[in-house]
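Example with several molecule types.
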Amino acid sequence: MTGRRTVEVDGTAVAIEPGATILDACRAGGVDVPTLCYLETLTPANACRLCSVEVEGSRTLVPACSRIAEDGMVIRTATDRVRHARRMILEFLAVAVDLTTAPELLEAMAVYGADPSRYGTDDGSPRPDAVVDNDLYVRDLDKCVLCYRCVEACGDDAQHTYAITIADRGAAARVATEFDVALPDSACVFCGNCVAVCPTGALMVKTEFDMRVAGTWHEEAQTVTRTVCGYCGVGCNLDVHVQDGAIVKVTSPFDHDVTAGNLCIKGRFGWTHVRAGVDGA
Amino acid sequence: MDIRLPMAAATVDERRAVDRILGPPTTGWEGGERRRVDGHVATGGHAARARRHLLLPVLHALQDDIGGISDGALGYVCERLTIPPAEAYGVATFYGLLSVSEVSPTVIHLCDDIVCRTSGAKELFTALADAIGPEGSSDGTRTWHRSNCLGQCDAAPAAFVQEAGVGRRVVVRADLDRLAAGPIDGRDPAYAAIGDAVLTARFGAPDPADLDAYRAVGGYRGLRRALEVGPDAVIAIVEAAGLRGRGGAAFPTGRKWRAVADEEATERYVVCNADESEPGTFKDRMLMERDPFSVVEGLTIAGHATGATKGFIYVRGEYPDAEDRLRAAIAAAEAAGYLGDDVLGSGFPFRIEVRRGAGAYICGEETALFESIEGRRGEPRAKPPYPTTVGLFGRPTAVNNVETLAAAVAIVAEVPGAADTKLFCVSGDVDAAGVVEAPFGVTVRELLTVAGSSHPPQAVLFGGAAGRFLAPAEWDVPLGYGPPSPPMGSGAVVAFGPGVDMDDIVQRIAEFFRDESCGQCVPCREGTVRQDETLRRLVAGADERGLLDEIAQVMRDASICGLGQTAAEAVSSAIALGLVGGAR
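Resulting structure tokens for the full complex:
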């Protein structure tokens, strides 16, 4: 059981290590599989099903991100069934939520020919407004695809703060604090690690949110500079996003072995003093 | 774990309700008196987290005693069990019978599912709205909600009533007077048999919780034989009989037991899935209410066969009478040595614990059921790994339906005909709705004949909401496992008479799945909503068959669990048979 395994991906044999997932196998074979809820640093949530593939002998499609590949598995990623599932999932999401700040999903919609307009007109139910209850980050539940990433990052997979949860059930399910209290009244420590993993911009740092509202957010005009956080001795890497000579956001690289994309409140948000006195502040 | 608790404090009554389950707090760390030593010694950690499975029982206690769960009460629960408040809130809001938004002395859940709505439920809604106000509103003491199927289809319309500090009761053949003040209804069980009565043989017993009466008619012969022949032989007997799971998935029971028995783990569990919630299905309730010892004996045999020393019965929250009977039967069995450290002097230790569901159809899915017992939201897990390898509390687990266990008892006890009998639930537009026991090979038409009907139905739904509508030609197909029989599902047969508005019925089934999806995966959470909306347009005259087919396909192909995978079955079959959307 310790040796390498071989699976077939779209007709091509791919050698993989034991414990590798179908997604690993596809990527090793150079086959692109779209993902949404999956992130290398988090436990697969299995929720979006966008990475569904066909596995010979399986009655249903199989989520590539979490299923361990078995020796001899025959995997197909480009069948009508797979394409249908992905197109429908993308349409479902586009009908239910605002994907305007999720460029990867918009791109996937074009690839799979997703057409959300065929579900009829908007039912007129009120869309939730973005919740601005603190100075550091904003929650826009109208953009939330319930991928579980933020809940996992806040909980077992990174921060162990457990400030947020999935509340309610079915179509009413939503990310929430206990009794929907404002974030400053919850257990939130404002590390922003939930913001870092959000794939749709439903969680957004306040500076970016404000600049987008004002129409002054220009990602193409920004530079990103990697540096090391100076607040303590851990050595977290920071990616400092700068636009027009001013810091607009700080993130952390996911592939860094110290931080894995995570920071604390100081590293992620503690940079406004850099401009102190410059902007007339 | 560092927990930040809500500012509000629990009331004395709320603390009492929680302590009723957990016992009084012993340290300042869990909400008790702060002792001198508490400043130096921390409790919590693994020991506290290992009590997470007590979350649902505690939330039940608050709902039962107080009528709802306030922020202060939830904070106290979290303090006692070392659970982050957000997580506990997520759990509490998942379940339909727990309320965090209101505290109401009386909550009426009135069934408006496919059987009740054709049996007077609609008129009752109007009456309730007049008496109390619109759904969800309160008149100060009472509030009411519509409910999905309550499993009382043999005596529709039905309601389930939660009365804080009083108890939970089921009202059948409900009318406004009985809802207001009615006592717990005594009623005769409605059942019949075609051929030998095996599973229903004891349904007429005057006191189903009387152990001596159970033994007098052959009870516990199965367990005695099992202890004699040993686990391997028991599994072989069950395999040879060809017993398959009666909850709907029809998995071979012997193979499941063998898989668990063959696991190397030291600890393992058997679980009785008594969360019967499939619309039109009430056979498991009837078994638990009328023959509870057969369930207890069956689970004991399953434990012995698989090497488990602990069994759980996860009983539906809307089945208070079944739960009471089971608890009484377990107590009697313990007192007589049929359960305990040394079952019947054989050296086999086995105990059973009853856990109550809290209003979630999805918890009938086996892995969602595990999550629920473990104190989490009832969201199904990815499979593999399968429960026989990684089940309850991460241990190998055999999950069996109530009827499966009762059938296993009869098979091991060598009751004639035991391997060839099945319970069907016949309801809807028939003269005498009830459970019909019949041998495999019986037809739907024969089942309807037993229940009696003055006119042929315009439609028959077979297998519950997750099943499908049958074409009239299929009413004469012998029922069994595999073609030409339609999938057995839960064995529910619901007849709809000529006057029934089938558009309304099919739409209600779509609503059912929209309500009951756990919301975890996109195909089911969004697909059930889109199916409901698209069906509405079809009923209104638009040709949406193509889109409904496409929605059905992604739900079937890509949903995590059986709920999403079958959520389009009934709707698709209704369209194929021309039952919905007028003459199209």
